[in-house]
Amino acid sequence: MNLPLPDPLARAYSDTLKATLCEQIQHAGGWITFADYMDTVLYAPGMGYYTGGAAKFGAPGDFVTAPEISPLFGQTLAHQAAQVLALMPQGSILEFGAGSGKLAVEMLTELERLDCLPTRYEILDVSAELQQRQRALIEQKIPHLATRVRWLTTLPAQFTGVIVANEVLDAMPVHLVVWQDGQIFEQGVIWHDQNFAWQARPLTAGELHEIARELPPAASEDRQADNRYLSEISLANRRFIRTLAERLQQGVMLLIDYGFGKSEYYHPQRRQGTLMCHYRHHAHDDPFFLPGLQDLTSHVDFSAVAGSALASGLTLMGYTTQAHFLINCGITDLLARMPADHAGSYLPLANQVQRLVSPAEMGELFKVMALGKSIEIPLRGFVSGNLRRML
Questions:
Q1: Under CATH, which architecture does the 66-171+237-266+298-390 domain have?
Q2: CA-to-CA distance for 135 and 261, rounded, in angstroms?
Q3: Tens digit of each residue's pLDDT (9 = 90 or more) over 145-170
């Protein structure tokens, strides 16, 4: 792989995490699940990708998210939040993984314009370094609203309002499962010849096995010579939804991420899975490259998310593409607030909207799912483009 090399300090950082992983593997008897590996490289305190101090977002980082692409993303999302907050005068917003803080800034700015500010804007982020960046940006851009924002270290026992998780589910640990010759295996990680390596072990019992044997690969009639099928199962996503369902008293969860429904996620042609790594704007498939310096992600199985939600007493209020959601919520109207004859300002915004809604960019791969409790009205973001049949 022709990937940029890290500087000596960054490599030493990665080597320290690598040593920690080696000890973890040794203490576990020589083998750990990939979910445990992923959890450590992303979230080990002070050493993981999301808990360390390296730049992650924008040009100096490894990837770009929708709030970084355009202020119109957060402003448009605010219109959906406003519809829900209007039903509960004491409602708050809870954002998971707030990144640079740009989404919070744009949502609060637009909600103030709509005269629909939340009682509080709460942020739950595992990175202390990112929390500092978020505070600095909020105090710089919207100092008069800074007192409404507070940072949490744990989930509140109860919550009423709007929960926002933009590109959060894809960064939760996944188990790698292999279906082959009528058997099910779990792909784990070992330390061999001074490197991390793969090793599969039979999967015969437990929650992961129960889920795996009900998925399409287990019943596949594919008779190719190589009938090996590898994919991901996220127990973490399921537990996350169940926990939020317990805490949510009234309101809506907005989940925005790239992924598919079950039949497309486990399509016969997707036999290598969806696991991807992002390093300095290069996408590749080696999760053992420079642990702690690259992001590891997996597409989201939205059918599994919806199933966990319904089993936990939530209502599926909508599921559509990011393009349909943003257009339904009025992103083109927000773009029109900028006069088209102001080319220097209008054209960049128009290009940004194109990236957010184009099928060739983020428009179709990214989906938006709304899960609700004690909310009876149809949500604005899902008035057209219903994809529930794909779940």
A1: 3-Layer(aba) Sandwich (3.40)
A2: 36
A3: 999 999 999 999 999 999 999 999 99
